[in-house]
């Protein structure tokens, strides 16, 4: 008899047949005696369809009105899921963000949740109803409809779990859990039974996009027990995302190998080796809203130095144009760019207590003749930038070297 | 400087291009200095699409949840219209039924409006905004979303006009006004400049389906000045629906010729001519929710009589089956049915003060050899049931006889 919040994404809600399938899944939990609150996304493709419609009537749709339009996607699915539940004899009641009352700030299209009124939900649960809540949306203090931005339904799920003090928040998706790396690259990749919030954040931001980062941060902050599961597969335990480090000594030091293919490197050669140069180079880049990831400043000689950094590949042309414009100011010799970079990271809270992870990583890559172009580290991850053509090879050898392959765990 | 409520139907909102067209229309009224509140329907076809989706997940969708789903149609169009207005520099703000607060009872899918809070709308109007309100929907006292039933957007328009004490409620549709009869049958049919509420009710219920009957009743009750106009044509005055009878003495006695093609007649022959027989025959029909329209009981002879009535053609088989079952009870000789009936009506408040309308109607039809099978009258209309094959002829000759043809007005 637990209180479970379940979140089903757009693919799980993608057709009437799939919605009926979700209803059967929810019914099973009810039959086991659990209280269930369900958060749903819009049917896959629906939000994009609505945005396209908006762009047909106005080049730059006003954000308040855009939220009025796109929030209908989830309003449709909450109603449909309730009907499907009632059709198989399960009491259910739907709520829009406004009806719950999920109070947010007034930042239309990217609102933040401020407060959740859980009274109506509790009353329905007590009366034996499944409560179905529209993800991705809320209402501001003036009664305006707001949305939380892409992936916001995960955040709704976690926030409701926190407000209701739920025993678990289950995120149903089209994968059956978090893997040690992408199984399309390493067939030996294993599903992790548990992963810490910190690791999950590193994995997510590095490209293993199972959960929206914001919802993971939220879950970590409010100590919500979060589980990722497949909505198309029955009986799996998925991956539990925990606050605590696994105390099992046999646990591998590294939890997974993350990667990102879409990197590009910029190098400014021969800049004066003096204070303030990093700001002079990166200031204009930041002003243009370009995210900079890894940064290296070589040791200078002859009073000049080389400065390199990576950006998302889509931002490269913009970044080059900006630097071309300001290069003269700081007297740089040359600007070089490389579109074919990739980033590979080993992630694991275990490395805090296990030195030697970095050297093992570098040795493994060196043995395959893979040149490391840049390095960045945090307490629980080490990332390297390499030529993109070596990406798959690097992921495979690191996965094996750190004992993540199925046989060796 | 008037306050105008405008209602645009699904066809007018049927595509991004059409929505932009509505925005331009609204902008013109704003430019003339008027305050404008706009009520919109869902894009044409959208409500049916949503109902179909609901029926795919549940054979009998629960009404509360059905309303949650189908109310999204208008929520999309209010947002889109506001964006389109803002895009051409017109301040605008959208409201769902719940946001306005259009308070209704809790009869999901066919709710009745109880009260409208006009404060937020007034504030926006004062600040120079066009207010765009979702038609067809409201909210009950518990915060549940309700809908008003088919055609409910007309009712929303009239109700808002009443609540705001608007100078006029304009219903934009795909015809440019109310006609003396269907121009497809009588090319000489003229658009009426004015028509009374009572006449409009008779015209509407008899098949000239320009406005939803309920909204006309509502407008009559609250003395809302109602005007029907084309949304695809500029500059027309449409038809004004008024409380008062036109005092113009030149006004023809009859305002229009209405008709209904889908009638069927049932005759029970040789029933005992005694009190209670009408109830015995029609009671079971009413219990089966079949609407009976015209009724005739012949003068009896030899202690028996014949009893006839009309029903909608779609109900005929059901009615025959019911009467076959009960016929023995009242000892009827025979049951006859006729599927090919039609009803033609002359409508006009003028007939109150002009006797002789009925005889003129009967003579006109007789001159064409059209046999009148049944007659029913009210204070402002006379209806006759005739064979369907004579329908067009009857409408044409009556239209001419009562001076409604273009040239003679």
TrEMBL record, chains A, B:
GO terms for cellular component: cytosol. This is Aspartokinase. It holds the Pfam family ACT. Residues 266-340, 346-409 form the ACT domain. Keywords: Amino-acid biosynthesis, ATP-binding, Kinase, Lysine biosynthesis, Nucleotide-binding, Transferase. It comes from the Bacteria. Pathway: Amino-acid biosynthesis; L-threonine biosynthesis; L-threonine from L-aspartate: step 1/5; Amino-acid biosynthesis; L-lysine biosynthesis via DAP pathway; (S)-tetrahydrodipicolinate from L-aspartate: step 1/4; Amino-acid biosynthesis; L-methionine biosynthesis via de novo pathway; L-homoserine from L-aspartate: step 1/3. It catalyses: L-aspartate + ATP = 4-phospho-L-aspartate + ADP. It is an enzyme of class 2 (transferase). ATP binds at residues 7-10, 173-174, 179, 184, 209-210. Its EC number is 2.7.2.4. The keyword Amino-acid biosynthesis applies. Belongs to the aspartokinase family. One of its GO terms (biological process) is homoserine biosynthetic process. InterPro entries: AceGlu_kinase-like_sf, ACT-like_dom_sf, ACT_Aspartokinase, ACT_dom, AKii-LysC-BS, Asp/Glu/Uridylate_kinase, Asp_kin_monofn, Asp_kinase. Substrate binds at residues 47, 74. GO terms for molecular function: aspartate kinase activity; ATP binding.
